[in-house]
Each structure stands twice: as structure tokens, then as C-alpha cells.
Amino acid sequence: DGGITQSPKYLFRKEGQNVTLSCEQNLNHDAMYWYRQDPGQGLRLIYYSQIVNDFQKGDIAEGYSVSREKKESFPLTVTSAQKNPTAFYLCASSLGGDTQYFGPGTRLTVL
Amino acid sequence: GIQVEQSPPDLILQEGANSTLRCNFSDSVNNLQWFHQNPWGQLINLFYIPSGTKQNGRLSATTVATERYSLLYISSSQTTDSGVYFCAVVKNNNNDMRFGAGTRLTVKP
Predict the structure, then answer these.
(1) Is B95–A50 a contact, with Cβ atoms under 8 angstroms apart?
(2) B contact test, residue of A9, A56, A90, A100 with most B CBs within 10 A
(3) pLDDT of A64-111, one tens digit each?
(4) Which among B35, B93, B98 is the nearest to A97, CB-wise?
(5) How many CA atoms, within 13 angstroms, populate the side-chain half-sphere of residue B5?
(6) Cβ within 8 Å of residue A78, ≥6 positions away
(7) Is B7 helix (H, G, I), strand (E, B) or coil?
(8) How far is Cα B99 from Cα B109, in angstroms, rounded to an integer?
(9) Mean pLDDT of B92-96
(10) Distance (Å, rounded) from C-alpha B106 to C-alpha B59?
């Protein structure tokens, strides 16, 4: 089936650890995105990538890093520099600037 | 940056009622989407509608780009319509999508 997958669904991290969230798509979309959602709020853009080996910072990139080595994959690393990482993380993809399609999300909790 | 405001923030309906959700945005946009977020967090695309009117079953949407607003209509609401509805916009084809804070809809049986 075509779509966007994110793993893991739930992730627990100790303070001071880096963690990497996976996002894969088989829709042949050029663009991919990472968003953060805090309880009761809308989504905020962390990073996006329009083509392989290129990405741009969104509004809240501090404490996060990404890579785009393959068209299908856009992993997000939450570093120890991110002061308040507990949140729901959503990945999306699109064909150019067209409709964005979202994965099921990863809930990250810092213990 | 572009501001997106959604109203009302919360809406409670009886099953079978109709509703209108509003999205105002502060600048011209190239892309506007409506999403439904279900209780498990999954965002479902409802409409891609930078202008004009579209309908899909009991849902329809209208965007008046010149006046910078969009409306989502839900008719004959069902309990499965419950969740949060988000409006999101993109300016200048730069793929930087801005979300509103959402409207939380509760449909009671």
C-alpha cells in the first residue's frame, strides 16, 4: 500500500539522550516535512525538504536535526539541546507544493 | 509570518445538526487545506482548496481568496465527525505550511 509510515509510535527518552524518529514514504513525493504538535495546539513546522540532500529550517528548528539522503526517507533527530521535547511529532510529504499527506505520528515522552 | 485564525475554538453539536467552521488568514496564499485530526492523532485530508468551492459527501468547503477566509460546512453531523479540524495555508509556494489552532468538534448522540 502507498503511504507514509512513522516509527516508533511511542518513544520514551531519558533527559540528555538524542533520539531519532523515522519517516518513510513510498508515494514518490519530492517534498517531506516534520511538524511538532503540543497538547491543544496546532502543528508547527520544524524542518522541510523539497529535494534530496537539501532541507530548510521551519519556525522551531532549534534542538532538532534532519537528513535527506534518500527521496523516501526523512529522519528527525531530537537532540539533548531541545529543552522541551515531549510532544507529538508528525511527518508529511507532498508532490511539490500540492496537498500534504501525513503519517500516523510518534509520541515522544522525556522521562 | 502569515497568521491563521480559526473559529469557534470549540463546538458541541447534537447528532444530525449542521455546522460551519471558519478560517481567516492574514495574507494571500497559494495553498489552503482542511484536515480532520481523529482521536488517535491521525491527520486526514479533507480538502485542498486555495479558492472556490468543493464538496465531498456531507462536507463542503469554500475559500474566498480575495477576502482571505475559508469555510468548512458539515451537514447532518455524526459522532464519527468528532475531533479537531485544522485549516492550514501556504504562501508563495515555499512549502512552509502554517496551521491554525483548530476547532474541536464534539458530536453527541
Answers:
(1) yes
(2) A100
(3) 999 999 999 999 999 988 889 999 999 999 987 778 899 999 999 998
(4) B93
(5) 7
(6) A13, A18, A19, A20, A21, A63, A64, A85, A89, A108
(7) strand
(8) 30
(9) 72
(10) 16
- Single-letter amino acid, residue B3: Q
Nearest to B97 among A41, A100, A105 (CB): A100
* Rounded Cα–Cα distance for residues B47 and A3 (Å): 18
* Count of A-B CB contacts under 8 Å: 57
- Taking contacts as CB-CB distances below 8 angstroms, the residues of chain B near A94 are 95
Closest chain B CA to residue A31:
B95
C-alpha dist (Å) from residue B99 to A7, A43, A65, A69: 24, 6, 22, 28
Retrieve residue A101's grid coordinates.
Answer: 499527506
Cα–Cα nearest to A20, from A31, A8, A28? A8
